[in-house]
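Feature request, filed as a ticket because there's no other form

It would be nice if the structure record came with a short human-readable summary line next to the tokens. Right now we just get the raw output. Example of a typical job, pasted below so the devs can see what we mean:
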Amino acid sequence: MKTLVAVDQYIANSVEFAIPILEHLRDLVHRADARIEERMKWSMPFFEYKGTVCHMAAFKNHCVFGFWKGSLIEDELGIFKERSEAMGLLGKIKSFDDLPEDDILIAYIQQATQLNEDGIKLPSKIKANPKELTVPQYFIDALQEDSKALAVFQNFSNSNKKDYVLWFEEAKTEATRQRRLETAIEWIADGKTRMWKYIKK
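Raw output as currently delivered:
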């Protein structure tokens, strides 16, 4: 099992209820395929084999587990709460009762690993309509943690939304991206656009 000290620390520093859940999810990932390696990206644990397979995170009141290529996985048993390419596929995990059976989740992880093994890529996010904006899933997840910020962002114009998305994508490091994400949530909750400092009053 190829573990990472940084992931050990992430789990240990999580809220108490989340620790056994994260440890269990981590164990299932490595039971599914011993070749999977751990990484820390965007301040959360990722699991990789020939590309990203899945990842997990803990918040104040719940955990999440997602598959990077979730939209390509055949959800024959209907365990996905939301169709997504990233986090939250299993919905908000507050206890072990919110998880599918171990064998089922292992099978899904193996399916996700096989997609990478076969070199299958996600469809291009370039839209036919250039005005349509793709908001990164990590940003959506952060907004969903703050209902006020989410409501404000939904009412932003397309250009105001784009300003924030580009700000994240231009970050040179994951640490910078995370700092910008936290700042953005505070600003948006206050009704501020990305360029609010430059708006003439």
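Something like this underneath would help us a lot:
Strands lie at 37-41, 44-48, 52-58, 63-67.
Residues 6 and 40 are 7 Å apart (CA to CA).
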